[in-house]
C-alpha cells in the first residue's frame, strides 16, 4: 500500500463504501466505513508522505503555511468528487477527505419523512437542515435543490465553502458560488445575491451573526432560503439563531423568525442492523402554535409541539427512532444511545 496515488486510495475507499479518508503522520491511511475508522493497509505514514498527498491535492498548498488550513473540492476519475480539508498539525500537515456521491440522489431515495417532500414546493421563507458533521445535510439539501431544478423554472444561487455537489441545470438557472474563490465571504455573497434576481438561495452554513441577519432578510424579502446549522434539535436551532443576537434585539428576531421560519429538519445517521447506516430525522413544520411559542420565547415547549404535530408532518427524533426500531432497521442499543429521551423510547418500543 506504500506510495499509492491519492486517486487510487479514493477509488478503493469508494469501493469499500467509505465516507471519509484521513491522512495523518504516524498511522496508516484510515477510512471511515459506517461511522467507524479502519486502516487502509498497514504502512504508517511519515510527515513527508502526508505533505506529498497534500501537495498532490491542492495547487494552493503553499497558502497553508500562512493560514493553517485549506478547504476545497477535488474531482477524481470515475465521477468521484471529494471535499478536502488540509490542516497544519505540530509542524506537519494532515488531510481529511469527504467522499461525495457520484450523483445527486432523488429525494425519495433518502428515507426522509414525507413532510420533507413539501420543501421544494415552498414559495418563500427559511428552511434549516441541522445535525452533526457527517449526518448527510449536504446530500439532503442537494436532493431538495435538484428536485426544484427538475420541476420549477427558477433561479437558484448557492453559497458554499467549498462547492460540493455540482448541479446540471435543467429547468432552473443554477449559479454555484464558492466562498473564498467566487466571493470573499458568505456575507458578501448574500448581499450580492439579493441583487442577482434569485428565487432560491442555499447558504452552506450559518455561523456568524451577519450571515444569520442576511439570511433572515433574504427570506423576508420573498426568497426561499435553505441553510445548514449545527444544532441537535429543532428547538436548539431556534435558540441558536436568537441567541446569536444581542439581548436587546432578541425579541425582534423572535418575531421575525416566527414569520419567516417554515421548517427545521434535524438528521442523525445511525448504524443499520446488518451493516450500513440509516437516517433518523426530526421534522418541525412551523404552524400557528409553534410560531406563537417562538415569539413568546417558550422554546422548551416547542419539543412537545413537534411531538404532537403529526397532522402537519412534524415528527420528533425519538418517534423517528422508534419507527426505525419497529422496522428492525436499528438495534435497541443504537436506539437508546441515539434517543433524546431513552426512557420514552424504551417504554413505547416492543423491543425494549
What does this structure look like?
The structure is a single chain. The protein is α/β, with parallel strands linked by helices and about 350 residues long. It folds into 2 domains: about 5-100, Beta-Lactamase (2-Layer Sandwich), CATH 3.30.450.90; about 105-315, Rossmann fold. Helix content is about 35%, strand content about 25%. It has 13 helices and 13 strands. It has helices spanning about 5-15, 45-55, 65, 135-150, 185-195, 210-220, 235-240, 250-260, 290-295, 300-305, 315-325, 330-340, 340-350; strands spanning about 20-25, 30-35, 35-40, 70-75, 80-90, 90-100, 125-130, 155-160, 175-180, 200-205, 225-230, 260-270, 275-285. Strands 9-8-10-11-7-12-13 form a 7-stranded mixed β-sheet, sandwiched between helices. A 6-stranded antiparallel β-sheet has the order 3-2-1-6-5-4. Helix 6 (about 210-220) links the parallel strand 10 (about 200-205) and strand 11 (about 225-230). Helix 5 runs parallel beside helix 6 (about 210-220) and helix 11 (about 315-325) packs parallel to helix 13. The mean pLDDT is about 95.
Uncertain runs are none
List the secondary-structure elements in sequence, H or E: HEEEHHEEEEHEEHEHEHHEEHHHHH
Could you state the oligomeric state of the chains shown? single chain
- Count of alpha and pi helical runs: 13
Give the helix proportion (percent range).
25-40%
Strands, count: 13
Largest sheet, in brief, is: 7 strands, mixed
* Measured distance between first and last alpha carbons: 45 Å
Which descriptor suits the 3D outline? globular
At CATH level 3, the topology of the largest domain is: Rossmann fold
What's the domain count?
2
Label the structural class: alpha/beta
The CATH class of the largest domain, by name, is Alpha Beta
Q: What is the strand arrangement across the widest sheet?
A: 9-8-10-11-7-12-13
> Approximately how much beta-strand content do the residues carry?
25-35%
- C-alpha Rg, in Å? 21 Å
Give the name of the CATH architecture of the largest domain: 3-Layer(aba) Sandwich
The CATH superfamily of the largest domain is P-loop containing nucleotide triphosphate hydrolases
Average pLDDT across residues? 94
Amino acid at each position: 500500500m506504500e506510495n499509492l496515488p491519492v486517486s487510487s486510495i479514493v477509488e478503493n475507499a469508494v469501493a469499500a463504501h467509505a465516507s471519509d479518508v484521513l491522512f495523518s503522520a504516524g498511522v496508516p491511511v484510515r477510512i471511515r466505513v459506517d461511522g467507524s475508522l479502519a486502516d487502509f493497509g498497514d504502512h504508517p505514514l511519515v510527515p513527508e508522505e502526508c505533505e506529498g498527498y497534500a501537495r498532490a491535492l491542492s495547487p494552493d498548498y503553499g497558502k497553508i503555511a500562512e493560514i493553517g488550513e485549506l478547504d476545497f473540492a477535488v474531482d477524481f476519475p470515475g465521477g468521484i468528487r471529494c471535499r478536502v480539508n488540509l490542516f497544519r498539525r505540530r509542524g506537519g500537515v494532515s488531510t481529511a477527505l469527504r467522499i461525495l456521491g457520484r450523483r445527486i440522489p432523488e429525494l425519495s431515495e433518502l428515507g426522509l419523512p414525507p413532510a420533507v417532500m413539501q420543501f421544494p414546493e415552498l414559495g418563500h421563507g427559511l428552511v434549516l437542515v441541522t445535525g452533526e458533521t457527517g449526518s448527510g445535510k449536504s446530500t439532503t439539501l442537494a436532493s431538495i435543490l435538484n428536485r426544484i431544478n427538475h420541476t420549477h423554472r427558477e433561479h437558484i444561487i448557492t453559497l458554499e465553502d467549498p462547492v460540493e455537489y455540482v448541479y446540471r441545470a435543467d429547468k432552473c438557472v443554477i449559479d454555484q458560488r464558492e466562498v473564498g474563490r467566487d466571493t470573499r465571504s458568505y456575507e458578501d455573497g448574500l448581499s450580492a445575491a439579493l441583487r442577482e434576481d434569485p428565487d432560491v438561495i442555499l447558504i452552506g452554513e450559518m455561523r456568524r451573526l451577519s450571515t444569520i441577519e442576511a439570511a433572515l432578510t433574504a427570506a423576508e424579502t420573498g426568497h426561499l432560503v435553505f441553510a445548514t446549522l449545527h444544532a441537535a434539535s429543532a428547538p436548539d436551532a431556534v435558540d441558536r439563531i436568537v441567541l446569536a443576537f444581542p439581548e436587546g434585539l432578541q425579541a425582534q428576531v423572535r418575531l421575525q423568525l416566527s414569520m419567516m421560519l417554515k421548517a427545521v429538519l434535524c438528521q442523525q445517521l445511525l448504524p443499520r442492523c446488518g451493516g450500513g447506516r440509516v437516517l433518523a430525522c426530526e421534522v418541525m413544520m412551523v404552524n400557528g402554535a409553534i410560531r406563537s411559542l417562538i415569539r413568546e420565547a417558550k422554546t422548551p415547549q416547542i419539543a412537545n409541539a413537534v411531538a404532537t404535530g403529526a397532522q402537519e408532518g412534524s415528527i420528533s427524533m425519538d418517534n423517528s427512532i422508534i419507527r426505525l426500531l419497529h422496522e428492525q432497521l436499528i438495534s435497541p442499543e443504537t436506539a437508546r444511545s441515539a434517543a433524546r429521551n431513552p426512557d420514552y423510547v424504551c417504554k413505547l418500543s416492543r423491543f425494549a
